[in-house]
Write a structure and sequence with these properties.
This protein is mostly helical and 76 residues long. The chain is 84% helix and 0% strand. The chain has one domain. It is elongated, with a radius of gyration of 24 Å. The relative contact order is 0.05.
Length: 76
């Protein structure tokens, strides 16, 4: 009987962990969706076309490239 109770407790703990993981993933997805919507809005306000492949890293790389080009143009 005690062995069955331990199995039941472990099953319940596992089920709670699965549910916790699912809720955490849903929260992360909602946060991602909010960021994407904010990026789309910012792109639209700037008159740009939002591309799903555009990432923060790519935007940062583009900023550095633009800065470098501006500095090169100033030196010319």
């Amino acid at each position: 009987m005690q062995e069955q109770e331990e199995k039941n407790r472990q099953f319940l703990a596992d089920a709670m962990q699965v549910e916790s993981d699912r809720l955490a993933k849903e929260q992360a997805n909602r946060e991602h969706d909010r960021r994407v919507l904010a990026q789309r809005k910012a792109f639209k306000e700037a008159g740009l076309v939002y591309n799903e492949k555009t990432t923060e890293e790519q935007a940062l790389n583009d900023s550095y490239a633009n800065l470098a080009n501006n500095l090169i143009d100033q030196v010319k």
